[in-house]
Amino acid sequence: xxxxxxxxxxxxxxxxxxxxxxxxxxxxxxxxxxxxxxxxxxxxxxxxxxxxxxxxxxxxxxxxxxxxxxxxxxxxxxxxxxxxxxxxxxxxxxxxxxxxxxxxxxxxxxxxxxxxxxxxxxxxxxxxxxxxxxxxxxxxxxxxxxxxxxxxxxxxxxxxxxxxxxxxxxxxxxxxxxxxxxxxxxxxxxxxxxxxxxxxxxxxxxxxxxxxxxxxxxxxxxxxxxxxxxxxxxxxxxxxxxxxxxxxxxxxxxxxxxxxxxxxxxxxxxxxxxxxxxxxxxxxxxxxxxxxxxxxxxxxxxxxxxxxxxxxxxxxxxxxxxxxxxxxxxxxxxxxxxxxxxxxxxxxxxxxxxxxxxxxxxxxxxxxxxxxxxxxxxxxxxxxxxxxxxxxxxxxxxxxxxxxxxxxxxxxxxxxxxxxxxxxxxxxxxxxxxxxxxxxxxxxxxxxxxxxxxxxxxxxxxxx
Amino acid sequence: xxxxxxxxxxxxxxxxxxxxxxxxxxxxxxxxxxxxxxxxxxxxxxxxxxxxxxxxxxxxxxxxxxxxxxxxxxxxxxxxxxxxxxxxxxxxxxxxxxxxxxxxxxxxxxxxxxxxxxxxxxxxxxxxxxxxxxxxxxxxxxxxxxxxxxxxxxxxxxxxxxxxxxxxxxxxxxxxxxxxxxxxxxxxxxxxxxxxxxxxxxxxxxxxxxxxxxxxxxxxxxxxxxxxxxxxxxxxxxxxxxxxxxxxxxxxxxxxxxxxxxxxxxxxxxxxxxxxxxxxxxxxxxxxxxxxxxxxxxxxxxxxxxxxxxxxxxxxxxxxxx
Amino acid sequence: xxxxxxxxxxxxxxxxxxxxxxxxxxxxxxxxxxxxxxxxxxxxxxxxxxxxxxxxxxxxxxxxxxxxxxxxxxxxxxxxxxxxxxxxxxxxxxxxxxxxxxxxxxxxxxxxxxxxxxxxxxxxxxxxxxxxxxxxxxxxxxxxxxxxxxxxxxxxxxxxxxxxxxxxxxxxxxxxxxxxxxxxxxxxxxxxxxxxxxxxxxxxxxxxxxxxxxxxxxxxxxxxxxxxxxxxxxxxxxxxxxxxxxxxxxxxxxxxxxxxxxxxxxxxxxxxxxxxxxxxxxxxxxxxxxxxxxxxxxxxxxxxxxxxxxxxxxxxxxxxxxxxxxxxxxxxxxx
Lengths: 464, 322, 335
Prior knowledge:
The structure holds 3 protein chains of 3 kinds. Chain A is α+β, with helices and mostly antiparallel strands. Chain A contains 17 helices and 9 strands.
C-alpha cells in the first residue's frame, strides 16, 4: 500500500451512502437495526436487576411447563400441542353456605380441551387464609363423556400448599384401576394421571376432546376464612422461545443476551483496537528502544495460549461478564494488530503534512493523537467491526466450559444449559437452535459490514 | 506504404471496465514501423502509453472490456491470434519488452541467470546448461559479469537490474523490443549509462525499438521518429527532426516548451491544467480544454489527421489549409 | 527466549491466585510422605510425631529449594520446573495408564489432539491453496462470486458448526457418532479400530473444513490475484511462459513465505480452537483434559496444559523461522 492510498477523507454520511450501495451492506445494517430495536425494547421493558433476580429465582416460574417448545415450533410437527391451561379459583365469604359447624363452598370452572396431545403435568397451587384449622378440599374433574372423577380429598398442610397431582402415585393407581374398569380390552400403554383424565376410554391412546369442568369443593371453619386455588394443566409449548429445564422462559435470556453479548463484543473489539492503535502508533512514531521493546513484547504475547489462559483465569477467579471483558482486553492489547498498524504508521510518518507539523513544533503526543491516529483510523475500522463476532463467540466458548458467572443470561449461557441438560440427545433442538441462530445472525451481520467497509477503505480490493 | 514495414498498427483501441465507468485507455491508434527503426512515444503520465505498449504484446489487465483494430507483424494479424499460438510464436520470440521499473520486473526468488535464460528453455527447448551459457554471454554484452549472474535480484543494484532486464529482452533476438520507461527509476548517471547501452545495442544488433517515455530529453539520442500521445490518442507523429523544428500540434509545442535545453535562453513553461479523465473524455479535440489557441470547432468535432509532409501527421485544426 | 518469557508470564498469571505455589507444595508434601512411608522406624512413631516430622522436613525442603523466598525469586524456580516439563501431580485426574503426573496425563492425550487437528489444518491448507489458485484464474466467474458471497459464513467457528452437524447426523439421521474417539467397546484388531477412529473423525473434521472453507479460498484467491499483478508475473507472461510455469515459478514460489506464515498461524489457532471442538465432540485430546480439569477443579492440570500450550505455540513459531530461512533466499543470504 502506498502512502497516498490512505489519505482520502471520509465523512459519516459518505460512508453510510457507500455501505448502502452494497447489498451486503444493506442486509447487515437491517439486521443490526433489528438488534438495536430489540435491545432498546429489552432494556426498557425488562429492567436489568429485576430480570436477573427473576431469572435466578427458583419459584418465579413454577406455573410454566418444563422444557416446553416454542409455540410456533409445531409448524415442524403439525400436531396441535397443548398450551398451559390455568384456572383461578377463588372461594370466600359470599360463596359460602353454612352446613352445621362448617362453611362449604363449591366452584365449577369449565374449559375446553381440544389439543392433540396430553398435558405434561397437573398441579394445584393453594393459598389459604384461616384462623385455626386448615380447610379441606375435594377436587373433581367432569369429562365430556359425563364421567365425574374425584381426584383428591386433601387437608391443606399450610397456608401455601401445592398438590403435585401428576406425581401422585396413589392417584395414578386409582385412575389406572378406574380406566381399566371402563375399557373391556386390554391396555398396553402405561396410564399416567394426565392420560387417564384426558383420554378416550378405549384401548388406543387418544385424546378426548371437548368441554371439561373442574369442580373444587372446600370446607372452611369460619366465614372469614378464604381459599384460592390455581389449577394448572401444563402444556408442552410456551412463548416464543420455549422454556428450559427450570421452567424459565428462554426468551428472557435471549432478550437480555442481545445487549450483554453485543456490548461485550463491541466493548472488547473497540477497546482492544483503540489501545492497539495507540500502542502501535507510539511504537512506530518514537522508534528506537520503545519500538523494539514493544515489538518484542508483542511477539511474546503472540505465543501466550490465549484460550487456555482465559479458561484458567475465569475458573480461578469466577469472573462475571464485565471482569471477563477487562481480562480479555488485557490479554489482547499486545496482539497481532500492532504489527500491521505499526506498518501503517511508518508510512504515514513520512507524509509531508506530518513533517510540517513537526517543523512548526507540534509535540509528539499532539502529532500522535491529532495527526497520525485520525489518519490510520479508516483502515483499522473494518477489522474492528469484523472482530466483534470473535469476542461474542469467545463469551459463548467460556460459557460452554461453564467457567463464567452462571447468573448472567447470555446466548452462550443458554446453549451451555441446553448442552448440559442433554438437549441434543433428548431432541430439544429449539433450545440450541434459537440462540445459535441469534449468534449466527449477529456474527454474519458484523462480518458483512466489516467486509463492505474493507472494500470502501481499501480501493485496491474493489477491483478484486 | 511499403511491405518492409515490420509492424503495422491500425485503428487500435482498448478500454477497461472500472467501478466508476469504462476507461478508454487507447483510442483508435494507427502507426507503422520499419525494421531497424526506433519510434519514441512521448506523453504525460496517464495518457495511455503503457497501455499501448502492453497491448502490443497482449498483456491486458483483468478488467479489459474492448479490444479493437489490427496489429500486423510482418503482415500477419496477431491481435486476435489464439492465446496459445500467440504465447508460443510471438511472445519474446518476435516481440520482447523491457518493463517500467526493473526493481519489480525480476522474480525475487529466482537467480538472475535463470530468469534471463528462461525464454531460451521455453521457446527453443534448450537444455539448462547451454541456455545458461548463452545467458551469461548476453549478460556480458550488457556489462554484467558472470559472477553476478548466479546471484539473486536483491543482491544487485538498480542499474544492474536494469541491465539484466535488457539482457533478458535480447536473449531470443526478437524482431521488436518494446522499451517502457526503461530508465524511469534510475539516477541520472545510471540513466545515461543505460541509454548509451541501448544505443550501442541498437547499432550492433540492428534492433527495432518502440521507446516509451515521458522524458522528451531522452528521446533525441535514440529515436528516428516521434509519436506524441494525449488522452489515449496519437496527436502527432513525425520524423525526429520535424518534431523539434516543426511541431504541428499545439500540445507538442507546449510539451517542447516545458523541456529544458542546454542552449537557448527560452523560459520554461508548464502546460496549465491536467490530463482529462479517460472515463469521460472531452468532446471534439481531447486537448481543447487546455489549449490556449482553442477554436469553436475544436470543442465539437474531432480533428482529422492532417498530413504535414511524408511521414508527418498531426491532429490539429491549425493545420487546416497549411 | 520468547518461549521462556511466555511460559514465565503464564506462570505469573496462574500464580496470581497462588495456585502454582499450592501445586508445588502439595507435590513436595506428597513426596516426603511417600519417602517416610517405607521407613520402618518412622512407622513406629505416633501419628502426632509423624506429622511433626513431615512438617519439619517439608519446611526444610521448602527452604532448600528456595520456595520460601519472595515471589520474584520463587517464580524462577517455578519457571525452571515448567521449562523442564516438571508439572507436578494432578489432584484428582489420572492418565489412562494410571499415572497422576500431569506430564503423563498431557503426553498421553497430546497425540490424539495432533491426529485430528493436524489432519484438519493440513486438509484445509491444501484445499484453500488449490481452490484459491484455481479461482484466481477464473476471476469474476459464477464460482468466484459464490465464494465471495459465502465467505462471511467463516466468521462462525468450527465448533459451532459442529453442534449443527451433531444435530443433523447424530440426533436426526443417526448415521454418525456424536463424539468420542472410537466405538464402545473398542473394536479388536488394528483395521476395525482404525476405521472406527476414522468414522469418529468425520464430523469434527467436517466442521473445521466447513468453517474455514469459503473465507480460506477467498483469502488465497485474493492473495494470488494481488500477487499476479506483480510486475514480474506480467514479465513472465510476456516472456511466453505457460500458465503452469507462471503459477509454479512466479506465483507460488515467491508467495511461499506468506503462505507458510498463514499455515503456521492456522496451526497456532488450531491448538486453541481444538479445546472447544474437543469439548463439543468429546474428543479425548488435550482440550478434553482441560474441560475435565475444569469440572474437577484440578488446578495443576489446568496450569500444566496452559504451559504445554505455550510450548506448542512457541515451537510452531520457531519452526516458522527455520522454514522461512529455507524457502526465501533473501532470508537465507542476508540472515
